[in-house]
Each structure stands twice: as structure tokens, then as C-alpha cells.
Amino acid sequence: MNDRKHIGYIENGINLDHIPHGNAWYVMKILNLFNSHSQAGIGLNLPSKKLGSKDLIKIENRVLTQNEIDAISLFCTGSTLSIIKDFKVIDKFILELPKVVHDVIVCPNKRCVSHQHVSKFNTFVNRKDITIVKCHYCEKEFNIEDISQYKF
Ligand SMILES: [Zn+2]
Questions:
Q1: What is the average pLDDT across 119-123?
Q2: Continuous segment of H or E residues that includes residue 72
Q3: I need a surface site. Which of 44, 80, 139, 151 has the fewest CB within 10 A?
Q4: pLDDT value of position 8
């Protein structure tokens, strides 16, 4: 498998691979790729032995903050993040579901006091393998797929 033929090499930056198909959109939104000057290569629906099909994003000259990594990990648990310098991978790790995310999700509970604060959600995976987010303020639990409003 060689993704270089799809979207090319990058010299310095990041390569986010094995994104569950369809979730590249979240990464583009979280990192504000539509309104930035970063050069990015985006592959959608690429063949993957592991996932069947996957998305892939490479961004030139971009470093990620821990907050950005946490937000991305919420939608890309199990994806591979590689840090590239001078065309070489100098660091590589698998994204894990963050236990807590700050300022990523808007609580669907309209009366929740979180709307006056930086939102805070605890996360976990339930027995059916669904990612659940729990609001720190109103303590309601939601399936991540039912969240429709984000802070990004
Ligand atoms: Zn809430």
C-alpha cells in the first residue's frame, strides 16, 4: 500500500492516516483547513486492509497542539499520526480516545449551564463499542454520533 501516489510527499508536517472513512471532514474543521494557508493533501475513500476504506490527511508545515490532538482523537480513535521532518517520519503514534475534551462539543441540552462556560465532556466507549460523551455540567450522556454542534 502506497499512499504517496495519491497525494504526494510532504517535507515537514503531519500525516494523519487510517482515519475512519468520512471523518476527514472533522479534522478539516478542527484544524480550520478551509481558512488556513497550510498546504494539505486530502485523500478520501482510499482502500485500506484494516478499515475497508479510509481517509488520509497530510499537512505541510503544521504542528498540532494537545487540544487539537484531543479533538481529532475523538473522531479518529485508532488513526495513525506521523510527524514528518525532512521527508522522514520522526515520530508516530496511534490516537487514543481522550478521557476528557474541553471546548470541542456543544452540549445538546439547551438548558445546560455549560453554554456559559468552556464545555467539558468525559468520554468512554460503551459495551456496544459506541463512543459516549458525558457532559461535566448536566451529566447527561450522548452518543458521539448524535452530537450535531461543535465549538470548531
Ligand atoms: Zn450539559
A1: 96
A2: helix 66-75
A3: 139
A4: 74
Q: What is the pLDDT of residues 32-60, one digit of tens each?
A: 998 888 899 999 999 998 889 999 999 99
| Ligand 1 centre distance from Cα of residue 137 (Å) | 5
Contacts (Cβ under 8 Å, ≥6 apart) of 36: none
117 with 136, same domain: the answer is: yes
85's grid cell = 521532518
Q: Report the SS3 class of residue 116.
A: helix
How distant is the alpha carbon of residue 95 from its chain centre? Answer: 9
Distance in Å, CA 141 to ligand 1 centroid? 9
Domain harbouring 48, CATH code: 3.30.70.140
Q: Per the structure block, which three cell numbers stand in for 20?
A: 475512519
Alpha carbon distance, N-terminus to C-terminus of the chain = 33
Rounded distance from Cα 114 to ligand 1 centre (Å):
6
Predicted TM-score (pTM) of the model is: 0.87
